[in-house]
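Re: Re: token formats

Sure, here are both.
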Amino acid sequence: MGLPPATPLILASTSLQRRAILEQLRIPFDVVAPDHDELPGTGPVERAAGKARSVDGGDRPVLGVDTEVLLDGALLGKPEDATHAEEMLERLSGRTHDVVSGLCLRTEHWEELHEETTRVAFRTLTPRDLGHYVAAGEWEGRAGGYAIQGLGASLVERVDGDFLNVVGLPAALLVRLLATRFPGVYGFG
């Protein structure tokens, strides 16, 4: 006899990658698009909190996440076009960068705010590598101009930290929080 089904948490995000990670971890969830304007100069923790706080979860936990890519402390956002994507990838070539996610898990009674950093080292990319990746179009809408869960894996030499954080959700951190705050409810702790 198994545990009763857990109350689905609310994902304050429309990200397909975040949905896929929650499904992979078998964490039940419902999606509610956040009603939050990202303010310039805010970090991923503040943006994650803004997303989570913009959704009324009632008695259910709400999860907000925001991820950014930093190279030498400089923010690499989402490329505007293919030329911009290629420029970003050229900057990342042969170098190590940080993928930083802010995570907010909250209920009406408490709130957890955390930051998770994963270091990603790119191999040295040739013009052919860059052209092949950019032509595939996977860079579109991706912070840093790549998607590690797809063809972007071919650009990467090493990952130090939570791989799923690079995909878009710091899964190890979320599992620890669920195990602590809801022991056994979501299958953890």
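Second one below.
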Amino acid sequence: MENAILNQENDVPSRIAQRTLAKREADYASEVRRLLDAALEVVRRSGTRSRARVADIVATAGLSNDAFYRHFKSKDALVAALLEDGAQRLARYVEHQMDKETEPASKVRRWVEGILSQTEPEIAETTLAVLWNGGSVGDSVGDRHSATVPLGALLRAPFQELGSEDPALDASLAAHAVVGKMSDYLWRRTTPAPAEVDRITEFCLNAARGAR
């Protein structure tokens, strides 16, 4: 009984430390979100005229340089995180659109439309500015944050239903193709015509069905 009481007493420092760590984790997560949101705002304002600067990002976030370097070793690391965050947001939006459909072909159509929505005028300039800033990110920092990874994962289930022999590979190939095409539209500052959306959708369906 005495040992049990002692063990409970010894747990007090651990419990207090855990509460402190939990609060610190929440505070740090809030700092990172503020830095990411500030980076997006600075990138949006600067467009493709000038690269975002750490000083501007920190000022917009209302944080210190110490806070910035607590989470990111360089501006490239922040830009890589911004790219990854954007990819996850887009994937969540696309998934939400796909969930409105029940048939696999219709899900693929929603997937294509969701990705190409990034070319719409009210979104395109910000997306382009983020990609432009991402051009300065080294391969070792940026490759693992490719937007094609979460987006390709969304196609695996409908591709399997459509008869793909290798849904993971075919979905990845389709994601690379469509994200690349989206980038083309962004750099040309154009949006795809309905016939082009149809064509791109058919390309993806053919990839799933193994059409040659």
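DSSP finds ten helices and no strands in the chain. Residues 140-145 have pLDDT under 50 and may be disordered.
- S.
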